[in-house]
Amino acid sequence: MKVSMTVNGKAVSGEAEGRTLLSSFLRDGLGLTGTHVGCDTSQCGACVVHIDGKAVKSCTVFAADAEGAKVTTIEGMANPDGTLGKVQQAFQDHHGLQCGFCTPGMVMSAAALLAETPKPTEADVRHYLEGNICRCTGYHNIVKAVLAASGQDVSKIAAE
Amino acid sequence: MYNFDFVKPTSLAEAVKAMAKEDAQALGGGQTLIPTLKQRLASPAVLVSLSGIAEMKGVCVGDDGALCIGGGTTHATVAKEAAGKFPALAALAAGIGDPAVRNRGTIGGSLANNDPSACYPSAVLATGATIITNTRKIAADDFFEGLFTTALEPGEIITEVRFPVPERGAYAKFQQPASRFALTGAFVAKYGSGVRVAITGASENGVFRWTAAEKALSANFSAGALDGLSVASDSLIGDLHGTPAYRANLVKVMTRRAVAAS
Questions:
Q1: Are residues A48 and B97, on separate chains, in Cβ contact within 8 Å?
Q2: What superfamily in CATH does domain A2-76 come from?
Q3: According to the model, what pLDDT value does residue B178 have?
Q4: Is A144 part of the contact surface with chain B (CB cutoff 8 Å)?
Q5: Rounded Cα gap, residues B9 and B81, in angstroms
Q6: Pairing assessment for the beta strands B168-175 and B158-163 based on DSSP bridges
């Protein structure tokens, strides 16, 4: 069947089977390989994208169920001039990544959190990122990066 | 996963029609069903997505004061929109899975699946809620029939759940830290007519009412009223996370915490 949606502001369409996952549609169909598939069991969060502004695990949504939706992936997070977006830049500034595999999902979840809660506490950030696993266990700098992206002073947060 | 035909109706009437096809399966938010399909533990011929049906979404208050939640309403929406009217239920919804799961998973999907460790069945049973389908109304006491089994007939769709809002109530969950399902969870609801207590996560037969606690709490609504009670560990779940005896103790502990938090 033909599936159409808006991805990162552009209208796209492609062929999909009923069982085609949104993560496969984005990666294999559209070549948007920034969305990572880690566990494929909706636990790790590397595949998080936004559907109509809400964070979802794209490995646990069918492409056909996103028909007509507005999807944002990590490729849509940069500024229009190609420079890093606010959350991405904070991850770079605060070394919020080690191997980087979980980073696309972390950035997408962080952006969803900041849209809901512009000034989160550290506890808010840790709670919101429960569904995103960093196998390098680099959580401390990820949390720091998210707090920095919210415009809060993180200079007093010690590297624990 | 095996392939299937995917249909996404925009009205309940169309969905009911689509569900009449052979081997049709309803898809709520898919947060349990999609992993199940990936493991080839289910292989429907037709998958009927309920996520495009606007009339099955939303939270409102009925004329009788009950909180009405559309079957297709996500956990995230319940967490936000039920907070004023029924904070214990909103808190339960806010503790399911993680934010991305809560943005997809639905109350109707959770109840139709009746996972023995899911959170929602305890709220529905403890409040004596009514489950409304496209064909009938089902009382909570008649709905849950055991492990992954409910009173739903093939093709029947949960369109709405109506919760009588208790005077006091709370849900206390001992969370399995990896899955965030309830290792054991207790929902306590106090009404003028008495107290109801429902336990999830503990029994091999799914959610159940702890009637001895209901009696004790109806006479004296305090955590101390539970002191003399004990829970038999027969038919409680034993797995790598906990023995039946461990869960029997958790039933009491979590009920006590729910009473204290209500």
A1: no
A2: Beta-grasp domain (3.10.20.30)
A3: 84
A4: no
A5: 25
A6: unpaired
